[in-house]
Amino acid sequence: MSPTRKAFLRGLIAAAPMTVVVGPFAMLFGVVATEAGLNLFEAMLFSVSVFAGASQFAALQTMQEQAPALVVLATSLAVNLRMVMYSVTLAPHFGELPLRSRALMAYFLVDQSFATTVAEIDRNPAMTAGEKRAVFFGAVVAVAPLWFVACLVGGMIGTAIPPDYALDFALPITFLAMVAPMLHSMPHLVAAGVSILLSLLLAGMPYGTGLLVAASGAMAVGAGLDRWLKVRRA
Amino acid sequence: MIDKATFWIVLPVLALGTYAIRFSFLGTLGARPLPGWLTRALRYTAVAVLPALVAPGVLWPPATGGETDPARLAAALVTLAVGIATRSTMGAIVAGGVTLYALLAVAG
């Protein structure tokens, strides 16, 4: 087997356990989107064109609260800003590849493909750019088709679920479950605390703008505390 | 219900914006390092946005007309606690869902 094919398989196998989360998560998006009044076509178009789970949920929630488009966009794009860091981290490894390769990789740059690729580069730093790309697409093949199919299934069963199943609460639970594992350092915990506190205090602000103020404040406190801890340690 | 006019504005802009974010450094050959303050800020975007997105709805759920619901509040706290303890998103979702349905059934 060629080294490239081996690298592809390593990516596929490394990302395979992530399907346990991706499948149900995508299905939930399909369900919640159609419950919120999108038809199957709109829900799928959303998933295919944006292809970023957390921000899709964020957009659904703010649109359901009748927030204006600007607030919806600011919130969901903010959720995706972490991917600037992914893009920065991967750039030096793939700079020599043709632009169309990198343009395609950008579309498929999600939490799972990023985490798999970075971990594999860490283990095998001597890989060529082509092998690294094979790892990346191995991970993509493990999660992306499943994401689309599960979304479709969720969208098809969505409207069949009766309202007494308290599906209104599927979104908050999903978001909390996504955030909780990220709270592994003091600044992360404090930022989340500030975020909760400010959003409750500012809940009365019109059109969900309290959310934006709360998130900015929490980000500043987290980054500030991060810096302060590093300076003190140095 | 989602306002379709808003949806059709949000969809293309969010799709293009998200792609631009992903393409930003990977697409432009220059792999310049980001300034330290920016990297630090970016590290905290998700934990800053997501809790603020859900906190008001957890305490004052629209489904109960804004009245605090013990079942929903407990489910949220269990989700957070299990997620922090196990670092498993799926585990936290299951724990939160079981808590919610068990308490709703008891209260039912």
From TrEMBL, chain A:
It holds the Pfam family AzlC. Its main location: membrane. Keywords: Cell membrane, Membrane, Transmembrane, Transmembrane helix, Transport. It is found in: Cell membrane. It comes from the Bacteria. The chain crosses the membrane at residues 12-34, 40-60, 67-84, 134-159, 165-182, 211-229. It is a multi-pass membrane protein. Belongs to the AzlC family. This is Branched-chain amino acid ABC transporter permease. It comes from Paragemmobacter ruber.
UniProtKB/TrEMBL annotation, chain B:
InterPro entries: Brnchd-chn_aa_trnsp_AzlD (IPR008407). The keyword Transmembrane helix applies. Keywords: Membrane, Transmembrane, Transmembrane helix. The chain crosses the membrane at residues 6-29, 41-61, 73-106. Pfam families: AzlD. This is AzlD domain-containing protein.
